[in-house]
C-alpha cells in the first residue's frame, strides 16, 4: 500500500503529465483557431478545393473499409474452418507483419509488385501487354489500405470465430448443416457483432492516412486532408489554407471517434489456447479446395510485397550505402529521436498509470480526484483527436514568430512521436503494473520498503520486461514514422524514413530500396527484442496466478 506522501507524489506526477499533454495539444489547437480567425475567411469551408479534398478523404476511407471487411470475412472463415491447414500458424503470423511494418516500407513493397516496373507489369509485358496496371491514384490507395488493414480485420474476426462454443459445431455436424447454413446461423451472428467496431477502427486509420497517400496519391485529384496540409505548408506555404484544412481534419476526426463510441470496440484476444475444434463444414472437398485457394491468394497478396522489399534491398549495394555520411547522419538522428520519444512515452505512461492506481486505491476520493482519474483515462486519446500532422502544423505556426521553426524540429518530433505511441505503451504497461502491484503490495508494506528502495528491489525487477517491451514498440513506431518529420525534414534534420522518401522522390529507387531494407530490419529487431521471452513470462504469470 502507498503511504500518504507516495500517494501525493503519484497523483502529482499524473497531474503534471496530463497538464503537459493538454498544454502541447491545446497550444496547437488554439494557434490554429486563432490563425483561422485572423485569416478573415481567405479560405472558407465553401472553397471548392477543401470540399474536393474532404470528399476524397471520406470516399477513399469508405471504400478502403468496405474492401478490407469484405475480403477479411472469407479469409477469416477459411482459417477458422481449416485448423490443420499446412502453414496456418505462419500465415497468421504473416498477417501481423503489416500491422508492425513502417508504412513507407509497405508502400515500397507494393510498388515492387504493382508499380510501373513491378513484377506484375513485367509479367504482362512478357506476354505482350504494355503495363495495364497502375498503382497510383485511388486504386493504389485502396490497394495499400487493404494490404495494411485486411490482416487486422481478419485477425479480429478469427479471434471471434474461435470463441464460438464447441457445442455449436457438434450440433451443426449432427444436423448436417451445409456451409451456407453454418455461415447464416453460427458465423454471421458472431461477425455481425464485430464488424461495426472493426469498420470504425479501419475507417479511422484510413481517414487519417498520410504516408500511403503521399506516395501513391499520384496528384491533386487523389489528396487527403493530411496530405493537403503538408502540401499547403511545405510547397505552397499557404498558412491560411493549412489552418482551415487542419481545423477540418480535427472536426472529421472528432466525428469519427464520436461515431465509434456507439459500437463496442473489438478485442484482439489472439489465437485460442484451448483444444482444436472439429468443424464438419470444412471437411468437404469443395470447401477444402475453396479455402486452400483463398489462403494461398492471401499468402501471395501479403507475402510478395514483403519479399519484394527484401529482394530489392539485397540488390542494392548495402555495404556502400551503410557507410555513406548521409545514412550515418540519418541513422543517428532517427535512433536518437526514437530513443528519446520512447523514453518520454514510457515515463508519461508510467506516471499516468501510477496516478490512476493511486486514486483508485483511495477509499474516499474528492470530486476533483475523480475528475482527474477520468481525465487521465482519456489523456492518451488526445493524439487521436488531433493527428500528428495537425499538431506539427499548429506548433509550426506557433514558433514562426521566434524565427525559423526548423530549429525546434527535433524536440517537436520527439514529443509528437511520444504522444503517438502513448496509447500502445499504456496498453502494454498497465496490465503488467496492475498484476505486479497486486502481487507485491502486501510484501513491500510488511518489509517497510518505500520510495527508491522499493523501486530498486521490487518494482524494477518485476516491471523491467514490460518496460523494455513498451520502449521497443514505441521506438519502432517512432523510427518508421514519416508524418511528423514531413514538415521539418531537411539536410540538417535527416531521418531514415525521410531519407528513403527523398531518394524515392529523386528516382534513386535502388538506394531507396536498400535504405528501406535497413530500416525494416532495425524495426524488426526492435520488435523481436521487445517480445523476447514474452511467452515464458506469460506462462510463469499463469502458473503463479
Description:
With about 550 residues, the protein is mostly helical. Helix 12 crosses helix 22 and helix 17 crosses helix 18 (about 410-445). It is globular. The protein has 23 helices and no strands.
Q: Provide a count of the helices.
A: 23
User: Proportion of β residues?
Assistant: under 5%
Backbone CA Rg = 25 Å
What series of H and E elements makes up the topology? HHHHHHHHHHHHHHHHHHHHHHH
Look at the helices and sheets and give the structural class: mainly alpha
Characterize the main sheet. none
Distance N terminus to C terminus? 20 Å
Query: What proportion of the residues is helical, as a percent range?
Result: over 70%
Q: Could you name the ranges where pLDDT drops below 50 across 5 or more consecutive residues? A: 269-275, 535-545
Number of DSSP strands? 0
- Rounded mean pLDDT score: 83
Report the oligomer. Answer: single chain
What general outline do the C-alpha atoms trace? globular
In brief:
With 545 residues, the protein is an all-alpha fold. It contains 23 helices and no strands. The chain is 77% helix and 0% strand.
What characteristics describe this protein?
globular; 23 helices; 545 residues; mainly alpha; single chain; disordered C terminus
Topology of this protein?
Elements: H1 4-38, H2 48-81, H3 88-100, H4 103-114, H5 119-126, H6 138-162, H7 166-175, H8 179-207, H9 211-216, H10 225-234, H11 239-260, H12 285-315, H13 318-322, H14 325-361, H15 367-378, H16 382-385, H17 388-399, H18 409-447, H19 451-479, H20 483-486, H21 496-505, H22 509-531, H23 534-544
Amino acid at each position: 500500500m502507498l503511504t500518504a506522501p507516495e500517494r501525493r507524489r503519484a497523483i502529482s506526477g499524473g497531474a503534471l503529465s496530463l497538464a503537459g499533454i493538454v498544454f502541447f495539444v491545446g497550444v496547437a489547437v488554439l494557434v490554429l483557431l486563432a490563425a483561422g480567425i485572423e485569416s478573415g475567411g481567405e479560405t472558407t469551408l465553401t472553397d471548392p478545393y477543401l470540399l474536393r479534398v474532404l470528399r476524397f478523404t471520406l470516399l477513399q476511407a469508405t471504400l478502403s473499409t468496405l474492401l478490407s471487411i469484405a475480403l477479411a470475412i472469407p479469409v477469416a472463415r477459411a482459417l477458422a474452418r481449416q485448423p490443420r491447414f499446412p502453414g496456418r500458424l505462419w500465415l497468421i503470423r504473416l498477417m501481423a507483419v503489416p500491422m508492425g511494418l513502417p508504412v513507407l516500407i509497405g508502400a515500397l513493397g507494393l510498388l515492387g509488385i504493382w508499380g510501373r516496373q513491378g513484377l506484375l507489369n513485367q509479367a504482362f509485358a512478357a506476354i505482350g501487354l504494355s503495363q495495364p496496371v497502375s498503382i497510383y491514384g485511388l486504386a493504389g490507395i485502396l490497394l495499400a489500405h487493404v494490404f495494411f488493414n485486411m490482416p487486422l480485420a481478419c485477425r479480429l474476426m478469427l479471434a471471434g470465430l474461435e470463441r464460438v462454443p464447441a457445442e455449436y459445431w457438434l450440433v451443426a455436424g449432427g444436423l448436417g448443416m451445409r456451409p451456407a447454413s453454418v455461415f447464416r446461423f453460427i458465423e454471421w451472428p458472431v461477425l455481425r457483432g464485430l464488424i461495426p467496431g472493426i469498420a470504425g477502427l479501419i475507417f479511422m486509420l484510413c481517414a487519417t492516412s498520410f504516408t500511403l497517400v503521399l506516395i501513391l496519391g499520384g496528384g491533386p485529384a487523389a489528396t487527403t486532408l493530411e496530405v493537403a496540409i503538408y502540401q499547403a505548408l511545405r510547397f505552397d506555404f499557404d498558412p491560411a489554407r493549412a489552418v482551415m484544412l487542419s481545423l477540418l481534419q480535427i472536426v472529421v476526426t472528432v466525428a469519427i471517434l464520436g461515431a465509434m463510441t456507439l459500437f463496442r470496440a473489438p478485442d484482439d484476444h489472439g489465437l485460442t489456447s484451448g483444444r482444436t475444434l472439429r468443424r464438419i463444414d470444412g471437411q468437404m472437398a469443395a470447401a477444402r479446395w475453396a479455402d486452400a485457394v483463398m489462403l494461398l491468394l492471401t499468402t501471395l497478396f501479403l507475402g510478395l510485397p514483403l519479399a519484394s522489399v527484401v529482394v530489392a534491398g539485397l540488390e542494392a549495394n548495402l555495404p556502400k550505402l551503410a557507410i555513406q555520411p548521409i545514412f550515418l547522419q540519418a541513422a543517428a538522428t532517427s535512433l536518437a529521436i526514437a530513443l528519446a520519444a520512447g523514453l518520454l512515452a514510457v515515463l508519461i505512461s508510467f506516471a499516468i498509470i501510477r496516478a490512476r492506481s493511486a486514486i483508485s486505491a483511495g477509499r474516499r476520493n474528492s470530486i476533483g480526484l475523480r475528475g482527474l482519474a477520468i481525465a487521465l483515462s482519456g489523456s492518451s486519446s488526445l493524439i487521436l483527436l488531433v493527428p500528428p500532422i495537425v499538431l506539427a502544423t499548429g506548433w509550426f505556426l506557433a514558433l514562426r514568430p521566434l524565427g525559423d521553426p526548423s530549429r525546434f524540429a527535433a524536440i517537436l518530433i520527439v514529443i509528437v512521436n511520444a504522444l503517438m505511441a502513448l496509447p500502445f505503451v499504456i496498453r502494454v504497461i498497465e496490465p503488467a503494473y496492475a498484476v505486479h502491484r497486486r502481487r507485491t503490495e502486501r510484501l513491500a508494506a510488511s518489509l517497510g520498503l518505500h520510495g527508491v528502495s522499493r523501486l530498486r528491489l521490487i518494482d524494477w525487477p518485476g516491471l523491467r520486461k514490460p518496460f523494455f517491451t513498451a520502449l521497443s514498440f514505441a521506438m519502432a513506431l517512432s523510427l518508421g514514422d514519416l508524418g511528423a518529420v514531413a514538415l521539418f525534414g531537411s539536410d540538417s534534420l535527416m531521418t531514415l524514413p525521410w531519407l528513403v522518401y527523398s531518394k524515392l522522390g529523386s528516382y534513386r529507387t535502388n538506394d531507396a530500396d536498400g535504405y528501406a531494407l535497413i530500416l525494416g530490419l532495425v524495426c524488426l529487431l526492435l520488435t523481436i527484442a521487445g517480445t523476447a521471452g514474452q511467452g515464458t513470462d506469460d506462462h510463469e504469470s499463469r502458473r503463479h496466478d
